[in-house]
Design brief:
The chain has 86 residues and is mostly helical. 69% of the residues lie in helices and 0% in strands. The structure holds zinc ion (ZN).
């Protein structure tokens, strides 16, 4: 079995950029992470019109997450989480 997928690989797959899914066929743990990420992406997309994300936290989150590699929906999810928690 290959190594487990990291967060970046999961995000790339959910965004359609990662096409080598052999590991997913033999690893329920990573499959579940991909499914969870897909659900989160959809939830974020559905929630976007309802949440007016304030400019400053969004920029803070975007700046923090952007140093790694983040998809727009991961940044949006983090921004929504900041809005809900904060
Ligand atoms: Zn795995």
């Amino acid at each position: 079995m290959n190594e487990h997928w990291n967060e970046e690989s999961v995000a790339r797959y959910v965004d359609g950029e990662e096409h080598d899914d052999r590991h997913l066929h033999e690893c329920p743990a990573c499959s579940n992470r991909v499914i969870a990420a897909m659900r989160m992406k959809r939830a974020v997309r559905d929630a976007m019109p309802r949440f007016e994300v304030p400019q400053s936290p969004r920029d803070r989150v975007a700046g923090r997450v952007h140093s790694r590699r983040a998809s727009w929906w991961m940044v949006a999810a983090a921004a929504v989480a900041v809005r809900i928690v904060g």
